[in-house]
From TrEMBL:
Species per Swiss-Prot/TrEMBL record: Pseudocalidococcus azoricus BACA0444
Residue ranges occupied by any Bacterial bifunctional deaminase-reductase C-terminal domain in the UniProt entry: 10-160
Gene Ontology terms: biological process: riboflavin biosynthetic process
Protein name from the UniProt record: Dihydrofolate reductase family protein
Gene3D superfamilies named in the record: Dihydrofolate Reductase, subunit A
Pfam families, sorted: RibD_C
Length: 183
């Protein structure tokens, strides 16, 4: 738990072999979107989003998401972590902040804005927050597909991170979603 009381949470999908995207960043293997399928299921994503009041994205994730219409994080402050220049369209400048900062600094910044629950997204960003001990819970949806290679959700750690299983749900299409609390 962070000292300031801010909760950092993860909601993410992986292939069965642990990849969050293809090597080129493509997400074409993910289940259908509402636009693609009349019987679309959001697997609890909207309920999760309703439970957070801020978002932290890695730059690569931001670059992908900023093309989504409508912008999925309306009315929530978004921090984009990047050590490179990052284009923020005029329509998003009131809520999107680009920072080159360590996870602890991001948590302090958001906590000082009154944020209490943050959605952490992007492989490298999730890994950084995990290594810093700042993630409190993870909801991981495993899609029944093997990609063989891609961008992994988890990376090297300096120490084990124990997880406490909260629940697991399975869906008719083979998707299995597990919720874990850290430590």
């Amino acid at each position: 738990m962070t000292e300031v009381g801010l909760t950092c949470r993860v909601f993410i999908a992986t292939s069965l072999d642990g990849f969050i995207a293809r090597s080129n960043g493509a997400l074409d293997w993910l289940p259908q979107t509402p636009e693609d399928s009349p019987d679309f299921t959001d697997y609890g994503y909207q309920a999760f989003m309703n439970s957070v009041d801020g978002v932290v994205l890695g730059r690569n994730t931001y670059e992908l998401v900023k093309s989504f219409q409508p912008w999925p994080y309306a009315n929530r402050p978004v921090v984009v972590l990047s050590h490179h220049s990052c284009n923020v369209p005029a329509a998003l400048r009131s809520t999107v902040t680009v920072m080159a900062a360590e996870p602890e600094q991001v948590v302090d910044y958001l906590s000082n804005q009154g944020i209490r629950s943050v959605y952490i997204d992007g492989g490298q960003t999730i890994q950084q927050f995990l290594r810093a001990g700042l993630i409190q819970d993870l909801i991981i949806s495993r899609i029944p597909i093997l990609l063989g290679e891609g961008i992994p959700l988890f990376g090297p750690l300096t120490t084990d991170i124990p997880l406490v299983h909260q629940y697991t749900r399975s869906y008719d299409n083979g998707l299995v979603q597990s919720h874990y609390q850290v430590g």
